[in-house]
Amino acid sequence: MKKFKTESKKLLDLMINSIYTNKEIFLRELISNASDAVDKLYFKSLTDSDVKVGKDELAIHVSFDRDARTVTVSDSGIGMTKDELEKNLGTIAHSGSLEFKTDNAEAQGDDVDIIGQFGVGFYSAFMVGKEVRVTSRAFGSDEAWCWVSDGVEGYTIEAAERSGHGTDVAIVLKDNADEENYDTYLSEWGLKNLIKKYSNYVRYPIQMECDKTRELPKPEDAGDDYKPEFEHYTETETINSMIPIWKRSKSDVTEEEYNEFYKSDFHDFADPVRTIKVHAEGALTYDALMFIPSRAPYDLYSKDFKKGLALYSSNVMIMEKCEELLPDYFNFVRGVVDSQDLQLNISRETLQHNSQLRAIAKKLEKKIKGELATMRDNDREAYEAFFEQFGRGLKYGIYTSYGMNKGELADLLLFYSAKEQKMITLDEYMAAMPEGQDSIFYAAGESVERLAKMPVVKAVMNKGYDVLLCTQDVDEFCFQAMMGYGKPAAEGEEFTEKPLKNVASGDLGLETEDEKKAAEEAAKENEGLFGAMKDALDGHVSKVGVSTRLASAEDAPACITAEGPVSLEMEKILSQMPDGGEEIKSQRVLEVNAQHPIFATLKAAQEAGDADKVASYASLLYNQALLVEGMPLEDPVAFANEIAKLMK
């Protein structure tokens, strides 16, 4: 037995047990090696006129033997001599493929695409095998040699028999252990699944002998009681697709083919709403094919959902979901990215330089944003359907970045317009603003219907201003993070940003000077009344005052607003969280309509010294305003009793 040519046995153990995180990766590595061997022979046929090999003669064959517990990967490639077996397999981390790639760099491309580069992929076989036998016959040679090792200390090389050029790698699988079931690799389904998962787009056909069943012809003399008979047979089947759809010219692929690929590979029964194809050349060459689904998966907003695009290098899958390729707010996008320029780590499961990923991700983000903007402008119905499914994620993208991403995302947002009674963008809102409007107004609550009836919404609309009605729990937080929004400035114009104001917030600045003066006089005149009402509400409000929003007898008698950074809607949402959000309270203000008949009743009770009546009316007005806002009552029974008392 010959020893492995390494400094110590520890390095071999590292190769086998520490590089790869997933044992099933062994089949990907062996098929990639086989593809490289076939590629080398094909390249030889292109550069040597004496070598007559057609591309249709080149293939990879995978088989298994349950009784012998073996999995075999065979190829019709260039094969290896005895010296090459010793050099390539007996020296750990020596890559014959890397040498070939370096010596023939100009050959990489459409005809030849060498995958290997580290010289360790072969040793992944020892993760699942207790012995590996490599039988190889070099092209043009009459001799075949067999390399055998248990992956512990060394190997043997002996003369062998093989009918033609190429290599067979036969793995004798380990016995099943408590947590490891190696029998998975001894089934047609198990091997086909791994081939499709990792090596579906290897450029050469990967074939298997597959079990089939067919019905036998019905005999001519069969009677009425004839029952169909079936026979089992085997047939060579090509498992992989070979040509990746993302590398084909867009003009050569139909929309139906893209849709079928999406539904098949990403397990969706509905067609995508948009398909995005990218081909980039330069310092980093890559192909990308991305899809915007028509509906959100059930777990999109759960903590278990994992975003990312499938990452391929030279048609071999490296990562099923590469999270770095997508920002969180575009987590709904599905697709693949393929580049032979990526610098992979030794296991080819992750990347060495994330700067490459960041460069690709930045370009893809712009493509996705551009596609969404085009859909928004040219197919509004489709975009509104998309936004209903995925708009929440775009809003979270602004909120979780503390507003840093609003430049990329804010113009994609849609909100319901109380005036237009349809979904509009912030740009459309600003374009319709009357002269003199200095803010973008919005209201947040449970439903459009409820918000439209709120006194604070009606008050703003009576001034001639539109109000955006926001019904998702993230809306208020999104707007708080944005603080303002500016319509993109035309050439020669100055960029201006309008603040975003909740109509239930403190000072909207909409009152006229006369209204402001009247409110100040009423507040001064009724200072004692408002003080008594505040005391009666016992800390539930920070202030009671005259409303400038409710300015007529037809308006509501009172409304609740909030001062400070925490709005009423934010308080309501935070109070529903399981981590103590009820501790966060807004600074509530009870605004009283000085023109409403109830205010006269309050004044009369205060002047008559009827403190109980003032307290009762204060409680009623406060709780009534809470109900209108959709806020919970702290004591519904007390509220009902107060109403009953007044009805006596």
Could you explain the architecture of this structure?
The protein is an alpha+beta fold and 648 residues long. It folds into four domains: 8-214 and 229-238, Histidine kinase-like ATPase, C-terminal domain (Heat Shock Protein 90, 2-Layer Sandwich); 255-378, Ribosomal Protein S5, domain 2 (2-Layer Sandwich), CATH 3.30.230.80; 381-502, Rossmann fold (3-Layer(aba) Sandwich); 513-647, Four Helix Bundle (Hemerythrin (Met), subunit A) (Up-down Bundle). It is built from 20 helices and 23 strands. The strands form four sheets. Strands 1-6-5-4-7-3-2-8-9 form a nine-stranded mixed β-sheet. α8 crosses α9. The termini are far apart. Residues 93-98 and 110-119 have low confidence and may be disordered.
